[in-house]
Amino acid sequence: MKQGFFYITIFLISSFMNAQISASDVVLQNKIEKLIEQLTIEEKVALCSGRDDWSTMPIERLDIPWIWLSDGPHGIRRAPATNKPGYGDQLPATCFPTASALAASWDIDLVYKVGQTLGEECQALDVNVLLGPGVNIKRSVLGGRNFEYFSEDPILSGEMGAAFINGVQSQGVGTSLKHFAANNVETMRMYNNSNVDSRTLNEIYLKPFEIAVKKAQPWTVMASYNRVQGEYGTQNSYLLTEKLKNEWDFKGIVISDWFAIVDRVKAMKAGMHIEMPKVSTVNNAIVVDAIKNGILDIAVVDGLVKEILTIVFKAKSLEKEGIQLNIEKDHAFARKVAAEVATLLKNDNEVLPITKEKYKKVAIIGEFAVNPRYQGNGSSQVKPTQLDKALDIIKNEYGKDIKITYSQGYNLTNDNDISLIEEAKKIAANADVALVFSGLPLQYESEGIDRTHINMPASHNKLINEISTVQKNTVVVLTNGSAVTMPWLKNVSGVLETWLGGQAGAGGITDVLFGKVNPSGKLAETFPMRLEDTPAFFNFPGEQGDVLYGERFFVGYRYYDERKIEPLFPFGYGLSYTNFEYSNLKVSSKNTTDKEGLTVSLTVKNIGKVKGKEVVQLYVSDQESTLQRPEKELKKFVKIELNPGEEKTVSFKLESNDFSYFDSKRNRWIAESGDFVISVGASSRDIRVSEKINLQSTQLVPLAFDEYTFFLEYWNNKQTRKILLEYMPNWIRGIVTEGDEAEIREYQGFMVEHPLIKYPYITSGEITHEQVLEIVEKCKNLTYTP
Ligand code: BGC
């Protein structure tokens, strides 16, 4: 009785709260409806375009405000005014590690907190919408914007994107999920067509967007420059309406990437809300004419305006007054983040961490130690509030106990200048350990330009090799936004990948090098041995405006696994100063259904001497499938922290979509019956525990047979076999064996492997063309369980 009362009370309270939320929604929607009645056609169209570089259009007559959209997203790149481009004169803001670095943390909570801090800084800088995150897949190592994207894997990219959005939006600031979609190449970025098949598009390239939209509902999505399956991202109704709005239930608005509009009328019909930035009034005039000439229905425009105003009023209502940048706090947090993303790739003989017990003299070599590279080139460039330098930090924090020497090592403006190497060798030979800060200079990675190779400057490579001849404890500290080759790898003892670590990167790196923080980053992208080994090698960056996604869904580790190619470092890889043991894998059932799903649990133990964090990765492999599938795919991951000797139970819940592939013929996700192997490990190439299970599908999916389906397929299905027997009994009798369980005679194979449409002449007229169509019609609503 008491319990019943409790539930009723909870029900009433929650209904009341929902009623409250919807009551304020109703008030807003009524207000918007009224505004739409008062707006002229010209004003409605103007609202669907920017006011200038960074703001939406206000209509002062009706008190419709504007909101501020600002670049980033690993910091706020706020221009001094909305009508200024803001390159070089942007306001200072905290510069965090870029997306490729953040993803290496594999830490959803951390990325959420980064988003939260960015949201606070947006409030302080009067920004309503932060233009990011980018969740495009790193299809090729050559992609010029790879430093701005999370991963080669759709699940990791989607989860990182969702965490980032949820963090920013928790502060009453919107985001713009970009660049929608299949925007993976910079060469000819304004025209290139991503020629990608539907299955690959859905499984790999749309998946991160789908996850981010469903889990985080970004206020805006940015439609990309490129074409997808022949149609521009800004006017692609499959992407903007069918997928984003109808299937994923996106509630926000779509804005164009800057100058991405080609045909604004077509774009609006496809579901594009705002053209950014304001280019001129030419496009507005074209749209007004289209409305007046009946080419564009005013109802479509009203729908768009309604959604735009909903976001604009929401943004205004969530603005906070009097917020200040918390420069010191945010800088300290950026340092913590930089340490969390650092990825230890090699650590022979425990060359790291550096301690005063192990080493008396440390040689710091490489100009990056005094002139750090900490972010990428292009529209995402943030003006930092301050900038840490590794040499200063190391000297300040450890210089009392350890002798620190420095040599420049290379010339950042001349890749081939090796004149500084001899000097560097001298200090390396005189030290107990040499840290070589090297990697990719700014001009190597940029928005708008793809890379043509993945090598570091010749001077950096030579420097490392030469240092390693005089110092056995050589540690390479890499700074780069995306994979590089390491021709010197065998000669050095340690490699720490630090990515583009933001303004406090040097502090974070120091914390890891000197053991204050145990490294826990793992690669979110495969590092190949050589460019020729990479999946898109033959099809990147495309030709004459067409980019064939010929490797299909074999992107990243999916490709290396399938081709059995040994990468330099595999996806998911990263070392720690401790070790972890995996055991005790349990599944909730060895026979399950797609509806029930599966719970997987295991124990992870820290078997080393120091506290550390481990990224536990779960992969699913389909053992028998109608369609080709990758050897294994990442489906779940979690980052846990363990003290020495401590163990934790980790559990994951797998659902239907974790077993599914996208069937493009049937335009749906299918979880097929059969055996699956669930494996859990420390990287994609370091699986520690696994278990086989059987899944029984309960789905009923359309058979999708038509006049081009082969006779044999009709024959192999019990339901359609019956129909064939009705229409062409005589011809069938001639090709099958006797009896109730009649089978096609072996030598008749050739006769049954034709589309049904040919059977009027194959059966010498026993069936007519009209009857073929009748069969197709009868089969139209048939379903099967995959
Ligand atoms: C970039 C976007 C950016 C926009 C505004 C475009 O060129 O592709 O990522 O948000 O410019 O600067």
Task: Describe the protein's architecture and organization.
There is one protein chain. By secondary structure, this protein is of the alpha/beta class. The chain has 23 helices and 27 strands. Strands 9-14-13-12-10-11 form a 6-stranded mixed beta sheet, sandwiched between helices. Strands 1-2-3-5-8 form a 5-stranded parallel beta sheet. α1 crosses α11, α2 crosses α11 and α19 packs antiparallel against α23. The structure holds beta-D-glucopyranose (BGC). Beta-D-glucopyranose (BGC) binds next to loops.
Structural class: alpha/beta
Q: If you compute it from the alpha carbons, what radius of gyration comes out, rounded to the nearest whole angstrom?
A: 29 Å
Query: What's the N-to-C terminus distance?
Result: 47 Å
Instruction: Please estimate the helix content.
Output: 25-40%
Largest sheet: 6 strands, mixed
pLDDT below 50 for ≥5 consecutive residues: which ranges? 1-18
Query: What's the helix count?
Result: 23
The whole-number mean of residue pLDDT values reads 96
**Largest beta sheet: what is the strand line-up?**
9-14-13-12-10-11
Beta content: 15-25%
The distinct bound ligands, ions and cofactors come out as: beta-D-glucopyranose
Name the shape in a single word: globular
Number of strands: 27
List the helices and strands and how they pair.
Layout: H1 2-38, H2 41-47, E1 69-70, H3 99-105, H4 108-124, E2 129-130, H5 154-169, E3 174-180, E4 193-195, H6 198-205, H7 207-216, E5 220-223, E6 227-228, E7 231-232, H8 237-247, E8 253-256, H9 264-270, H10 282-292, H11 298-317, H12 327-341, E9 343-347, E10 361-365, H13 390-398, E11 403-407, H14 421-429, E12 433-439, H15 458-470, E13 474-479, E14 494-497, H16 505-513, E15 546-548, H17 557-563, E16 580-587, E17 591-593, E18 598-606, E19 612-622, E20 633-642, E21 647-654, E22 661-663, E23 668-670, E24 674-683, E25 686-696, E26 701-702, H18 711-716, H19 718-727, H20 729-735, H21 749-752, H22 759-762, H23 769-779, E27 783-784
Parallel strand pairs: 1-2, 2-3, 3-5, 4-6, 4-15, 5-8, 10-11, 10-12, 12-13, 13-14, 17-25
Antiparallel strand pairs: 6-7, 9-14, 16-18, 18-21, 19-20, 19-24, 22-23, 24-25, 26-27
Helix pairs in contact: 1-11, 2-10, 2-11, 3-12, 4-5, 5-7, 12-16, 13-16, 14-15, 19-23
The structure holds beta-D-glucopyranose (BGC).
